[in-house]
Specification:
single chain, 572 residues, alpha+beta, nine-stranded mixed beta sheet, 11 helices, 26 strands, 21% helix, Diacylglycerol_kinase_cat_dom
Length: 572
């Protein structure tokens, strides 16, 4: 009979085994594994209790064997549960007298309760296989459970019945698809490296994720890497570790490739929040009711390890001299001024925004210009559930962009990944794009050029503005739910206009209300869903930002690209 070292999770099992607790020989567990999860039936002195861990809460498993005890500690009672230790099956430091094989199963279960007290709790289940007299035979049993668990996880990822997946030509497992992590060491308060090593790597190890790590060395490094390197080797996804700015670089770097459309169709993008704002990371957790506030790094890393994804709207942005692509927001006026001018207080983290906003209210400014937009009739327009990804001719837009010499790109390396390989530009099989011929590809515009008047069905607002701000996901920052009704792929740009006539009382109510989403109902605030808009500033006294990045002050127009990208998310 086998043993189990833990308390803890489906009908119609494909594997079933009986275990007993090491310290309680009269406690028996009947463990059943199916495509739904792990079901454990505990029997103690005639009392039966059933506990379940759903498959979607399991991130990985490992086979181990017992460790050889140190000679100086030989006097300790070897039957004590606390002395049981295991090592990797390939280790030389194992106990030859113990023929048992151990299977570690790692799960992160949602502990339900009040909204603010919800969190994911780590559970490690250890199954001890020792039905046979030889270690090799017991390890075969443990490996059979491990392979079956990973098989079910991969079937869930493919969203198909296990048998149909088995008969298909898709033979690669989740662990075989390599993921590229791009880390910005200067994000937020500058602790991204430490966060990755201490909080992210352990989860990647438990999930047996195959990955490479690149640490950026200067501005635009991430953009240059994804533009020039072979991204097809990272079909598992690209994940940024930092703030929203580095994801902005990645998206625009991908759009500067001739194969942009195929990559966006296949690649998953992800973000592990280490910045000051972290708007997209919070929006993803908010969309699927994940307990982000308790541990943002844990929740966001679990999204990546589990491998599920969801569509995400992007926005095409055109200025007088460039084309950009945005995933978060576009701003002109108050909020953009706060974002850019508070950079000098970066060491304070998210608190920098609050402090600078207070100062801007004292010396409030307005900016003259014209804002035009194409409103969406939400009652008659096609719902997001029936929207389809738009396909474009990749030759549709070939506007040139300035090139920046990045020098030799040889800083790929791995941290904590047994499967990862060193990679440099010289070793890539991909023929890099010429550095002196950087172009923006991506989908072409479907609205009139900036030098042409807007169509008659657009609304036009002229005058002095305190701010104009547009968002596509719900959150601009962790504590700012700017577009409460937004969905990740609703095909809407949520546009906010505040003209100079607003009182300071109403403006204060607006700013305070952004933390709860009540700001949309404040007097003198226009908040409307649109599919495209145009800003034409007449005074150069304010900042224009795209995803929090400062751009050249000029006329600007934007249009929605429904479901253009795929992002890692814990899809329900």
């Amino acid at each position: 009979m086998n043993e189990i070292e833990s308390d803890y999770i489906s009908p119609s099992p494909t594997l079933e085994e009986t275990f007993y607790i090491l310290s309680k020989r009269n406690a028996v567990y009947r463990v059943k594994l199916s495509e739904k999860g792990l079901c454990m039936i505990k029997e103690v002195n005639g009392n039966v209790k059933t506990e379940t861990i759903a498959l979607e809460d399991i991130i990985g498993c490992r086979c181990m064997r017992s460790k050889r005890f140190d000679q100086k500690c030989i006097w300790h009672p070897t039957s004590r549960k606390g002395n049981l230790k295991v090592v990797d099956e390939n280790s030389v430091d194992w106990d030859e007298s113990d023929v048992s094989a151990y299977l570690y199963i790692y799960a992160y279960v949602l502990k339900k309760g009040k909204v603010k007290s919800k969190k994911r709790e780590r559970i490690v289940i250890t199954l001890r296989f020792r039905s046979y007299d030889r270690y090799e035979d017991n390890m075969k049993e443990a490996q059979k459970w491990k392979v079956t668990i990973k098989y079910f996880m991969d079937c869930a990822l493919q969203r198909c019945h296990p048998l149909s997946f088995y008969n298909s030509e898709k033979t690669s497992l989740l662990g075989d698809a390599k993921v590229l992590f791009i880390l910005n060491p200067k994000s937020g308060v500058g602790k991204a490296r430490e966060t990755f090593q201490n909080k992210v790597v352990p989860l990647l190890t438990e999930g047996d994720l195959n990955y490479d790590l690149h640490v950026t060395r200067h501005a635009h490094d991430a953009r240059n890497i994804v533009r020039t390197q072979n991204m097809w080797q990272y079909i598992g996804g690209i994940v940024v570790i930092g703030g929203d700015g580095i994801l902005y670089e990645v998206i625009n770097g991908l759009m500067e490739r001739p194969d942009w459309e195929s990559l966006f169709a296949e690649l998953k993008l992800g973000v592990i929040p280490c910045g000051s704002g972290n708007g997209l990371a919070k929006s993803l957790s908010y969309a699927f009711s994940e307990p982000y506030d308790h541990c943002p790094i844990l929740v966001s890393t679990l999204n990546v390890v589990r491998g599920m994804s969801t569509p995400l709207d992007l926005v095409r942005v055109e200025t007088e001299n460039q084309v950009l692509f945005s995933f978060l927001s576009i701003g002109w006026g108050l909020l953009s001024d706060v974002d850019i001018e508070s950079e000098r207080l970066r060491a304070l983290g998210a608190q920098r925004f609050t402090m600078w906003t207070i100062g801007k209210l004292v010396t409030l400014k307005s900016h003259r210009g014209t804002v035009s937009y194409l409103p969406i009739d939400q009652e008659s327009d096609t719902p997001s559930s029936t929207r389809r990804r738009l396909h474009f001719d990749s030759e549709g837009d070939v506007r040139s962009m300035a090139s920046e010499d990045a020098g030799r790109r040889d800083s790929f390396y791995s941290v904590g990944s047994r499967k990862s390989n060193y990679l440099s530009a010289a070793g890539s099989s991909y023929e890099s794009l010429a550095e002196d011929a950087v172009r923006t590809f991506g989908p072409p515009s479907r609205i009139p050029p900036l030098d042409q008047p807007v169509p008659s069905d657009w609304k036009v607002v002229k005058g002095d503005f305190v701010m104009v701000h547009a968002s596509y996901p719900t959150h601009l920052m962790t504590d700012c739910i700017f577009a409460p009704d937004a969905k990740l792929d609703d095909g809407c740009i949520w546009l906010c206009l505040i003209k100079s006539g607003i009182s300071r009382t109403h403006l204060f109510q607006f700013l305070i209300g952004m933390s709860s989403g009540t700001h949309t109902n404040v007097s003198d605030v226009i908040f409307v869903p649109v599919s495209a808009f145009r800003i034409e500033p007449e005074t150069p006294s304010s900042h224009l930002t795209v995803d929090g990045e400062l751009i050249k002050h000029s006329a600007l127009q934007a249009e929605i690209l429904p479901a253009m990208a795929n992002v890692f998310a814990r899809v329900q």
